[in-house]
Each structure stands twice: as structure tokens, then as C-alpha cells.
Specification:
The protein is built from twelve helices and five strands. It has 256 residues and is an alpha/beta fold. It has two domains: 2-66, no CATH class; 75-246, 3-Layer(aba) Sandwich (Rossmann fold). The protein has a five-stranded parallel β-sheet. β3 (168-174), α9 and β4 (199-204) form a beta-alpha-beta unit. It is elongated.
């Protein structure tokens, strides 16, 4: 009788602590382990796994949902052999370990349109979310628009503080549209607030020598690059358009 009361008490405590999966499985689990005569530590470890892995998966899905990433891309789906230069297998694998996120370093993916910059950015963002890091994705112009609205409503400091929080901030398409001096200043403030506080992954079709023209202000461009490049992995991708790859496979495009 006492064992039944103890069992009910343990299950009740688990439910109060939010360990719902563990509580639902506890009675049958205890019965199974008593027959197996498993070592106590092994039994406790397996019991915790009943709650740990489903909860970890739910948390990863939540991080993905709030990341703002427009689609799911995975590193294992990226055909590195298509790239003609700028990213070796060794560097690809090194970045996939995400140690740059832990060290709060940046990654800049440079190259012409279609070589896979955004695919890689989103794939590293996906890996980060699945590994336990938080990520947030914005295009460059979306970021500028958000910061401009915040400035106009006198909430710029608060918005910058919020954008400082993710472990890795993904900023896509830097350079596809020129920035005014005011917009460039907002971009600098974003880079500055994250400097040595969190990683940024940036895609750009512009060489660094073009950033002065891009930002309409050499001083702001220099200050932005100074902070971005201080702790940074610069990947200059070379190759044919990655988007044409699948079309070429099925014979929709012939370059002969």
C-alpha cells in the first residue's frame, strides 16, 4: 500500500514540475526496470532521457519558429563540389562545428548572385537552432527598415538591445541596395551593438572596397568593416549559379 502511495506522490511531483512525459511513463518504466534489475544510475539516466530528448526537440523547433528564417536549409544538402573556389571542405566542416558562434566571431559570405551564399547562411542558422543556439534572420533592408521605424518612434535603443540577444544574427543581401548616410549609420549601430557580444553571418555581393560607395560614407563603411572583420571568417565564393544546378541536371539548360 505504501509503495502505491509513494508511486502516486512521485508521479504527482513530476507533473507539478512539468515533467509530463516522464510522469506518463513512470509507472510502466519502474515495473520494467524492476524486472531487469538495472543499475540505479543507468535507470535514472534512461528515465531522464524520456523527458530530455522530446523537450530538447520542442525547444529546437521553437527556436526555428522564432528565427525568422524563410525556409529550412541543411548543410548536408549543400553540394560543395559545385563551388569553384573560396570554400574548402576543411573550412566547410570547421564552420559546421559552430565554434565561431561560441567564440562570438562573424562569418561573411561573399560572391555573385546564385553561388549559394543564402543557402549556407540558412543552413548554419538551422544548425545553430538545432544545437541549442538562438538565431534570427533579416535581410539588410528589412533590418534598416525596422531600425528606422524604431528611431522614428524613439525606441532605437530598445530595438538594438533586442537585436543584440540572439547568439547569431543572419543579415542577408548586404549590398543589393545602396544605403543613405542615415541608413548606413543604423547599420553601423547594429554591427557595433553586436561587436564581441554575438556572431553575425552576412551575405554580400560587394567587395569590401565597394562598401564606401555602398554606404555613401567612407568613414561609416570603415568603422563597420573594422568591427565586422576583427573576429571574422571571410568566405569568397566562386562558381556558376547554384540555382541553375538542378535545372542543368534535368536538361532544362544547355550551355554548349
Amino acid at each position: 500500500m505504501n509503495s502505491d502511495i509513494t508511486l502516486e506522490k512521485v508521479i504527482s511531483r513530476m507533473e507539478e514540475l512539468g515533467l509530463t512525459l516522464m510522469a506518463a511513463s513512470f509507472e510502466s518504466y519502474i515495473a520494467e526496470k524492476s524486472r531487469e534489475e538495472s543499475p540505479l544510475l543507468d535507470a535514472i539516466s534512461e528515465l531522464l532521457d524520456l523527458e530530455y530528448y522530446p523537450r530538447k526537440e520542442r525547444m529546437a523547433k521553437t527556436r526555428l519558429k522564432v528565427s525568422g528564417m524563410p525556409e529550412t536549409k541543411r548543410l548536408e544538402d549543400f553540394d560543395l563540389s559545385w563551388i569553384k573556389g573560396g570554400l574548402t571542405q576543411k573550412k566547410f566542416n570547421e564552420l559546421a562545428m559552430l565554434s565561431f558562434v561560441q567564440r562570438k566571431e562573424n562569418v561573411i559570405l561573399m560572391g555573385p548572385s546564385g553561388v549559394g551564399k543564402t543557402h549556407l547562411m540558412l543552413a548554419y542558422g538551422y544548425k545553430a537552432c538545432m544545437t541549442g543556439y538562438t538565431a534570427y534572420h533579416m535581410s539588410c533592408m528589412d533590418a534598416i527598415e525596422v531600425l528606422t521605424r524604431a528611431k522614428d518612434s524613439k525606441r532605437l535603443k530598445r530595438k538594438l538591445k533586442w537585436l543584440k540577444k540572439p547568439h547569431v544574427l543572419l543579415v542577408d543581401e548586404v549590398g543589393y541596395e545602396s544605403l543613405s548616410s542615415e541608413q548606413a549609420n543604423l547599420f553601423f549601430q547594429l554591427v557595433n551593438i553586436r561587436y564581441e557580444h554575438g556572431s553575425m553571418i552576412i551575405t554580400t555581393n560587394k567587395s569590401f572596397s565597394s562598401w564606401g560607395e555602398l554606404m555613401s560614407d567612407d568613414a561609416i563603411a570603415t568603422a563597420s568593416l573594422d568591427r565586422l572583420l576583427h573576429h571574422c571568417h571571410v568566405i569568397s565564393l566562386k562558381g556558376d549559379s547554384y540555382r541553375m544546378k538542378e535545372r542543368m541536371k534535368v536538361g532544362l539548360i544547355d550551355f554548349k
